[in-house]
Write a structure and sequence with these properties.
Largest sheet: 5 strands, mixed
Number of helices: 2
Strand order of the largest sheet: 6-7-5-4-8
Oligomer: single chain
Mean pLDDT: 80
Number of strands: 8
Structural class: alpha+beta
Shape: elongated
Length: 127
């Protein structure tokens, strides 16, 4: 048996809020909250000028250098895969977040060579 709770007062339009079978329900699309597609941000490829910029960043890291790669025109999954391959090439750790790839340490020369081998236009940024 399914229990259904509806939101709203009498006389007003009501919508399904909770179902014992699916749990909470999105009021916009009517799908379970876990499968809701209307609230998820659209992950589009960032528009850029086609130039990948490599820089060394030390701010907020207690003086430790991190190689930052910006401007790669790939979606989130492909960017994560590229980040993993670059970390393996450099033999170092790092992360991929917010359209950036960060690799621990100063690996600018290695990263530039690896990306140019892939056919990308690469520039050194920030000195």
């Amino acid at each position: 048996m399914m229990t259904v709770k509806k939101q709203g007062t009498e006389g007003s339009s009501s919508s399904l809020v909770y179902s014992t079978e699916t749990g909470r329900v999105c009021p916009d699309c009517g799908q379970p909250v876990a499968a809701c597609v209307c609230k998820q941000p659209r992950k589009a490829v960032p528009a850029g000028d086609g130039i990948v910029r490599i820089s060394l960043d030390t701010k907020g890291r207690k003086g430790k250098g991190v190689t930052v790669i910006k401007g790669v025109a790939l979606d989130a999954a492909a960017l994560a895969q590229l980040g993993k391959q670059l970390k393996t090439t450099c033999g170092s750790g790092g992360t991929t977040k917010d359209g950036l790839i960060e690799i621990q340490g100063d690996h600018r020369d290695t990263v530039i060579a690896a990306l140019q081998k892939r056919g990308m236009t690469v520039k050194r940024a920030g000195g």
